[in-house]
Design goal:
The protein is α+β, with helices and mostly antiparallel strands. The protein contains 3 helices and 15 strands. It has a 7-stranded antiparallel beta sheet, covered by helices on one side. The longest helix is centred in the C-terminal third of the chain and has 22 residues. 22% of the residues are buried.
């Protein structure tokens, strides 16, 4: 087996390079299973790597260092990353203080097939009730598509220009916002196929502010932290890039 070094690490089909910790968690939780894993560059230690592993209902992040000759994980030493993965395919990986063990079994590839566009449908239905306890089904289910995200952002109104905090959900080709978390119906759903730009914005004196540009209107929103703003911008930009590839006939890398 040929050695794998930082110069050719990008040849690994499960190396995702510069995705953030949050994006790795989103991919593995939305689309992976127990034992799914991917490798990415460390966001806190330049030159090192992080192995993100789906363990039950959470994602664990394991630091991997390269000393010029071999990779180090805890007390283990591996000359190639493939050797590292193969070692753990048949040996348990401690998932946390709870003692749950997870096998490192399913490499999560960079290129995952996902429809380049989604059909917009309107479903007329009532929330189901169980025959035993009459409990309604949970509203506003969590996103399950690749590169999904949800959280609070404060947006500027279109008419009065006041700032209101809303619950935002990025899923598939839409960015939806709700009056409150848990609401069944969004106040608005923005079709990202119509968006032309997403970027940081400093024109309104708001920290961690971004703009999402559409023909006829620009939406301004700010997050609670710089990291949160960066994650929203990164995901939105990724979505716009994929949609542009579809528009010109190139294969999207979902």
């Amino acid at each position: 087996m040929a050695d794998t070094s930082p110069s050719d690490i990008e040849d690994l089909e499960w190396f995702h390079k510069d995705i953030s910790r949050h994006v790795a968690e989103g991919l593995l939780m939305a689309n992976g299973v127990d034992g799914s894993y991917l490798l990415r560059t460390s966001t806190t230690k330049p030159g090192d790597y992080s192995l993100s592993v789906r363990c039950a209902n959470s994602v664990k992040h394991i630091s991997i260092t390269w000393d010029g000759r071999e990779y180090a994980f805890g007390m283990g030493r591996f000359k190639t990353l493939r050797e590292f993965a193969e070692h753990f395919e048949n040996k348990p990986l401690i998932g946390g203080e709870s003692g749950v063990l997870t096998l490192l079994k399913y490499p999560y590839p960079r290129c995952v097939d996902e429809p380049p566009a989604y059909e917009t449908v309107r479903v007329h239905a009532e929330w189901g009730r169980t025959s035993s306890d009459e409990t309604p089904a949970a509203p506003n289910p969590a996103p399950t598509a690749i590169a999904s995200k949800e959280g609070y952002l404060t947006k500027m109104g279109g008419h009065r220009k006041n700032w209101l905090t809303r619950w935002f959900v990025l899923v598939k080709n839409e960015l939806r916002y709700y009056r409150a978390r848990g609401d069944n119906e969004p106040l608005r759903a923005l079709d990202l196929q119509q968006a032309t730009e997403v970027a940081r914005d400093t024109t309104h004196g708001k920290t961690n502010c971004m703009r999402l540009v559409f023909p006829g209107r620009t939406f301004f929103m700010f997050a609670g932290s710089a990291q949160e703003a960066d994650e929203w911008i990164e995901l939105l930009q990724w979505k716009l890039d994929q949609l542009k590839k579809v528009a010109v006939g190139a294969a999207p890398q979902y």
